[in-house]
Task: structure prediction
Amino acid sequence: MSTPSPESPAPASAPGASAGKPSPGRRLIIAIDGPSGAGKGTISRAVAARLAYTHIDTGAMYRAVAWKALQEGVAGRAELEVGEGIVRVDGHDVADAIRTPEIDKAAAAVARQPRVREALIARQRAMGEQGGIVMEGRDITTVVFPDADVKIFLDASAEERARRRANDSAHASGRDGTAIHDVKSALEARDHSDRTRAASPLTLAEGAVVIDTTGLSIEEAVRRVMEEVDKRSRG
Ligand code: DC
Result:
């Protein structure tokens, strides 16, 4: 894999997806954005598994850069490897270490830095431009692949999102029993940062389909996304 370098980012290339009717059998680019706890990870993974596509969690990339910055005191050059269940920084497995409240905050700060974004966006385009991917994040439908074949904005109420995060065993808040109230405050602060930052804020892309997952089962939410994929595959 290529090396993202927040210090000397590669130039961002043009998005690779085409907005035209997909030719039969073409592997699509499926872009999914939304705030924390909207269900992006679970739903994107399930959709990718159904289609035998690659799932790419771009949030893990920002988290990995933040982990490195906390280790070294600055966001410097880092060798990242991000794959299904794999997050390594300079060869260290950080898949668990990046799911803590400290990294939540640091990642939101790192994600405000245009040079970090440029480097990661170039990397994300390179990973996805051949299609056959479900890529999730905050700016995938707006900046990384604005012409993606399928663009989804997943949302849920703040209460529901906090409840999910507080029960998420993959995240330290879910493991150490942090009160929902505290999880909700932290989540709202981070959402505010993600939505109001100057560099590619979280916003609804033109042509994106909004799916509110509040009260939906995972199966139901996956089915709604698959409907959009099927519509697009049929043209
Ligand atoms: O999805 P997440 O909570 O793991 O994301 C971590 C942070 O990175 C969060 O503050 C949002 C930010 N992020 C971003 O700015 N752009 C992306 N494409 C993905 C995540």
Remarks:
- The first strand starts at residue 29 and ends at 33.
- The CA atoms of residues 108 and 190 lie 6 Å apart.
- Residues 36, 58-59, 62-63, 107-108, 111, 137-140, 190, 194 surround 2'-deoxycytidine-5'-monophosphate (CB under 6 Å).
